[in-house]
Amino acid sequence: MEARIRLFESRDAEAIVGFSLRAWEPGFASLEKAMGSEIFRRQHPDWREGQRRAVEEVCQKMRVWVAEADGAPVGFVAVELDSHEKNMGEISMLAVDPDFQGGGVGTALTEFALDRLKDAGMTVAMVETGATPDMPRRGACTRRPGTSTFR
User: Fold this and answer.
1) Residue 129 resides in a domain
2) Is residue 61 predicted with pLDDT exceeding 80?
């Protein structure tokens, strides 16, 4: 499946929130299993609402691009230029609709975002993942030549 990557538009927000919550649900379930329900619920009393607000805020305040297939958003990536003095940037948020996972959309978004960071003069890119024992690391950032993985 070939996705086209374009700048975020406000009309994308609802779709992005919806597929992001579906995409992250297994990660939060795995985190709850790893932490135990009592501690998880103290830290994340309503993870869906917290993540909804986080996605909406990122879409309003950061540089965001959307992967689109058949005219609909199927993935997104948000980039933050943390420090021009340190030439450091970050892929701060990324999600792919579960119906489109495994088809290269996440890899395309990651590579696109890393290229935008490089174009902005960043020489260091930080990419954090939500990997847990039940959710192994995936994606281009762990395989791209010249990258380092810290665990």
Assistant:
1) yes
2) yes
